[in-house]
Amino acid sequence: MGQPEDRLDDEDYPAYTMGRAAEIVGCSPEFLRRLGDAKLIDPFRSDGGHRRYSRYQIRLAARAREMCDQGTDIVAACRIIILEDQLEEALRENRAHHHD
């Protein structure tokens, strides 16, 4: 990895413990585990086996929590978020392709 300063801006750097991530998202650690089971997020594992989350993963978890708070089933919420992200990526690639 880069210098410590680079990590501050790295959306994918696993800087947050499960407890801190749950606090930021406003959920329980169990909710984060269930998001992993539903394949929305795959947290980094420390050498000791502890889950570590990136800012990007925390944003996904917050989106899922919001949807669940509005009554969406957790598995459905995860699937919707995954599909939204896939669509966003496809649109980004399409724009880049058309600008070449």
TrEMBL record:
Signal sequence, renumbered to the chain: none
Domain HTH merR-type positions: 15-83
UniProt cross-references to SMART domains, sorted A to Z: HTH_MERR (SM00422)
PROSITE patterns registered for this protein in UniProt: HTH_MERR_2
Superkingdom, taxonomy of origin: Bacteria
Gene3D superfamilies: 1.10.1660.10
GO molecular function terms listed in the Swiss-Prot or TrEMBL record: DNA binding
Pfam families (alphabetical): MerR_1
Gene Ontology BP annotations: regulation of DNA-templated transcription
SUPFAM superfamilies registered for this protein in UniProt: Putative DNA-binding domain (SSF46955)
Protein name: MerR-like DNA binding protein
